[in-house]
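pasting for ref
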Amino acid sequence: MAHEALDFLQAYSKDNKYFLSHPFLWKVSFNYNFITLRRAINRALRKSGESWRAITLPDFFERNGNLLAAREITIPQETTMFDDYGIDPSSRGGFLPAFGANSRESFLRRGITINFFETDIDIEHTFFRPWMISIGIDGLINHDLKCDIVLKQYDNRGVRRKGYVFERAFPTNTEGATYNYNPSDFKEKTVTFAFKNYRPL
């Protein structure tokens, strides 16, 4: 058994017969109109006197063969609430009550969380944070501040393993970060998005 495990580990990233996905290869794409989204963000920010601006947009990271990569994503759970219906429980005589769906969980509670690798260009401060602030100013009635997010994961052959589309998404939370001189792994920026619907590719 030990030699089988060793053979597997040695061949994991070299042989096409191993189909496990790379742990960090989530390619993140934002489907938006370049002019419309940045203009909507910056117009809202100027309206309130904010000094924030959307400077770097995601498509900048897809030039020259690069990509906007994430190490980890968290897919939201799906929850439907149920109630029991029927006669008073004290007079059921041992019969189980009927039940029915009461409500489906709100889309605002079904966020997608993406852990972006930090690069020399801090997209969290030059795009995601201004975007979120602008929504706080204009509100969700400004549909130009929403766009689709496409996530794709690849296996070690470079073939897409799975993917999701999150429709009419917008950021709801950006986490803070602590910087110091201690050695550390790759820095990540966590951004949470709400969306209207999502589906697998």
